[in-house]
Specification:
Keywords: ATP-binding, Nucleotide-binding, Transport. This protein is of the alpha/beta class. The protein has helices at 43-50, 73-83, 99-109, 116-125, 141-153, 171-188, 199-202, 225-228; strands at residues 2-10, 17-26, 32-36, 58-63, 66-67, 84-87, 159-163, 191-195, 207-212, 215-221. Helix content is 34%, strand content 26%. The protein binds adenosine-5'-diphosphate (ADP) (2 copies).
């Protein structure tokens, strides 16, 4: 994942807010990065621009060597569906779909074959092989977030973004979710970028990026990540 001089300004004129003031960074495939910083420092905006959910005002985002925002809206949406996974704080599962239907949905949206066996295999791997036909409301928060992770993994995305993915979870569920994200990185070579306020969650990452006032003010390697996990 590579960002080159990404600026994001919301609004215009007197109401303009510079959320990102020129961020450049390069994260290698197969790394797990936590993003920390005070409220309003631009963490969510960084994630949304990097994930193609928002367009930067200036600058470029490259995923796997391809400029994501090079084409129009349709191309951006397709790119996102093919190569990006996203996990939210509040899970964002579709309440009327079963666990299995939630997980196969990204394959449908990407125009791929709906590979039920693949979805079931990933749900087994996140420990939910016996909950396929349940509705999200019948699951605990930790289980719902594991469904959301399975949904993010089903297309084998190059990069998975998490916006406070453990923010609504108890300690034990948070640890399970972090272990799954680490597994995606270390077993499958995926790249994970996670915004978090929780130092315990950040300690699972290989490095921690610090933002303040829309700029990167530090990027520290975490030599003990393996031991924490
Ligand atoms: P963080 O995630 O670190 O709390 P954000 O990326 O949410 O920071 O916000 C960075 C700045 O951009 C803040 O000043 C915020 O108020 C502003 N901002 C974020 N989203 C919007 C928006 N949709 N419209 C206007 N301003 C926004
Ligand atoms: P393909 O994209 O050709 O299916 P992958 O290497 O992505 O090949 O996947 C190989 C197998 O591993 C698949 O059966 C898939 O279900 C599983 N898999 C891939 N990525 C993950 C992941 N991050 N977590 C769990 N299972 C995964």
């Amino acid at each position: 994942l590579r960002l080159v001089s990404v600026r994001k300004v919301y609004g215009s004129g007197d109401n303009a807010v510079t959320a990102l003031a020129g961020v450049s960074l390069s994260l290698s495939a197969g790394t797990f990065t936590a993003v920390m910083g005070p409220s309003g420092s631009g963490k969510s905006t960084l994630l949304q621009c990097a994930a193609g959910l928002e367009r930067p005002t200036e600058g470029q985002v490259f995923v796997d060597g391809t400029e994501m925002t090079g084409g129009g809206e349709k191309a951006l949406t397709e790119f996102r569906r093919e190569r990006i996974g996203f996990v939210f704080q509040q899970f964002n599962l579709l309440p009327t779909l079963t666990v299995l239907q939630n997980v196969t949905l990204p394959l449908k949206l990407a125009g791929r074959r709906v590979d039920r066996d693949r979805a079931v295999e990933i749900l087994r791997r996140v420990g939910l092989g016996d909950r396929l036909e349940r509705l999200p409301a019948e699951l605990s928060g930790g289980q719902q977030q594991r469904v959301a992770i399975a949904r993010a993994l089903v297309t084998s995305p190059k990069v998975i973004f998490g916006d406070e993915p453990t923010g609504a979870l108890d300690t034990r569920s948070a640890r399970e979710v972090l272990a799954l994200l680490r597994g995606a990185v270390h077993t499958y070579g995926q790249t994970v970028v996670m915004v978090t306020h929780d130092p315990v969650a950040a300690a699972h990452a290989d490095s921690v990026l610090f933002l303040a006032d829309g700029q990167i003010v530090g990027h520290l390697a975490n030599p003990t990540a393996e031991a924490v996990a």
